[in-house]
Amino acid sequence: MSLAKLQQEIVACRRCPRLVAWREEVARTKRRMYRDWDYWGRPVPSFGDPKARLVIVGLAPAAHGANRTGRMFTGDRSGDFLYAALHRAGFANQPTSVRAGDGLKLTDAYIVAPVHCAPPANKPTPEEIAACAPFLERELQLLRPKVTLALGAIAWKAVLDHHARMGRAVGKPLPKFGHGATAHIPGAPLLLGSYHVSQQNTQTGTLTAAMFDAVLAQARAAIDVSS
Known about the structure:
The structure is a single chain. By secondary structure, this protein is an alpha/beta fold. The chain has a single domain, classed as Uracil-DNA glycosylase-like domain (Uracil-DNA Glycosylase, subunit E, 3-Layer(aba) Sandwich), CATH 3.40.470. The protein has 8 helices and 6 strands, in the order ααββααβαβαββαα. The chain has a 6-stranded mixed β-sheet, sandwiched between helices. The mean pLDDT is about 95.
């Protein structure tokens, strides 16, 4: 299966009743400032360069961000922070992301998520993460990156769980998540960790632009070494 066909399968998914109900309710009621938008309201497909050596693993679409625009990290403060950083690091052709079709292109980077539907309170359940895991598994097998960057502890665990399912020795105890953490798993891409680019983290200073730039520099250096 190609990545494009897999994304079509993702967009058509209705496995999780709670998520289906929430994403569609948000798309109907909308936020006042977006009342003129035709919300996407479906699972959000992954986005980026199919030949990417860097895969960025997020968490889930935001209710009025990607659930509105139909593209990962597009139309909210998290995306503003992420794409500005990717542009500085040379992975994106422009620093802004307003809507699908706005000209944004990623080079050598691809964005995936453990959950493709917007969850209430931005908190998917373990069961919902498990239901979406086969999509992540197939994406990572098709992409074959050199570096995987996990944004947050849930993404970190999702990647480790994927490697465990693939029969790779992830170690016991599992590699611990942290900002700038690394995990070298035999037969797998280098795993890097970063605090999530959520508005809560960036506005409180938990994650600064300099901190995130440093992690992207780690990723770039690892890619260059492996080339």
